[in-house]
């Protein structure tokens, strides 16, 4: 039982609102895959899956363990494992997860396993690299893939997909359109020679916004579900899903010349009230937010973090804020605040929300 008072609230209605927002951008026949990797972008993958399962066609996770957690919680929706390893293939089959086969090493290993079992039409997905240069076959691998596929009827290709390298960046429009066109060409070759037509998909959140012509059969919605559109106009139409809250553990009144925290980094120049909050860098609050770079909200007012962020605590300046021990503290509850934190940490909201550690209790609000 996790009784920690620092809580990440997940807003189920906001999740549903965001899903609707993106679904309205899709052709009626386009399917939706929701990405719940990394604990549902730092929230809680099982809860997110339960909130949206009746409205989506697929889930995706990065690693097989993440898919097993969903299956063990009773999620029945198809689950694509984006980054399986050969060592995981048996577990993947055991839990009816669907592997992405991205090179011949894992492709051959899976066919061997499927033929030995035999598995009979086991669903798999094939990924092509069109410029991200992270995971995926090359277009020149198509003939080999086709002939290997034809040698076994123990696997069936459910989808062929690729991933855009810069879908949020207008300066890279030409490159992105090139990726989409190359992908379409690969798909055409496969359709001509395979004998059936797997689903195809390439768009992530920013892709849905910026390249609606490339929806193909399905889109992969990640960060957008969690309230970020990678563009201020889009984010403004989405609702915040992650609210991180805590309480004031203790308040100290300190005198000029006295200091707060490790290395005595904050030095009071006038009488100062300092509030201690039970959340620290081990919970995902970057040390870069110390020394007044970051702030929290107490009784609707911003309270700057003073001194260095500790592992388990931060101290904030509440000299001008009416508050007492036990009062609620909002670490963040709005996308703009999360973006501010990300900016201060020289990163992006993806990292800020996925950094919230598992020590923080998750609570779904519906
Ligand atoms: C994480 C991921 C996504 C989701 O991307 P967002 O930008 O969060 O929408 C889609 N596809 C793949 C392959 C991914 O790894």
From TrEMBL:
Q: Does the keyword Isomerase apply?
A: yes
Q: Which cofactor does it need?
A: pyridoxal 5'-phosphate
Q: Which InterPro entries match?
A: Ala_racemase, Ala_racemase/Decarboxylase_C, Ala_racemase_C, Ala_racemase_N, PLP-binding_barrel
Q: Name one GO molecular function term.
A: pyridoxal phosphate binding
**Which reaction is recorded as catalysed by this protein?**
L-alanine = D-alanine
Active site located where?
37, 262
- Classification via SUPFAM superfamilies: Alanine racemase C-terminal domain-like (SSF50621), PLP-binding barrel (SSF51419)
Q: Where are the annotated coiled coils located?
A: none
Q: Which pathway features in its UniProt record? A: Amino-acid biosynthesis; D-alanine biosynthesis; D-alanine from L-alanine: step 1/1
A biological process (GO) of this protein is: D-alanine biosynthetic process
Residue numbers bearing the N6-(pyridoxal phosphate)lysine modification: 37
Q: Tell me the keywords, alphabetical order.
A: Isomerase, Pyridoxal phosphate
Broad EC category = isomerase
Q: Which GO terms describe its cellular component?
A: cytosol
Q: Which Pfam families match?
A: Ala_racemase_C, Ala_racemase_N
Per the UniProt record, which EC number(s) apply here?
Answer: 5.1.1.1
Q: Which residues form the Alanine racemase C-terminal domain?
A: 241-365
Family recorded in the similarity comment: Belongs to the alanine racemase family.
Function as written in the Swiss-Prot or TrEMBL entry: Catalyzes the interconversion of L-alanine and D-alanine. May also act on other amino acids.
Q: What name does this protein carry?
A: Alanine racemase
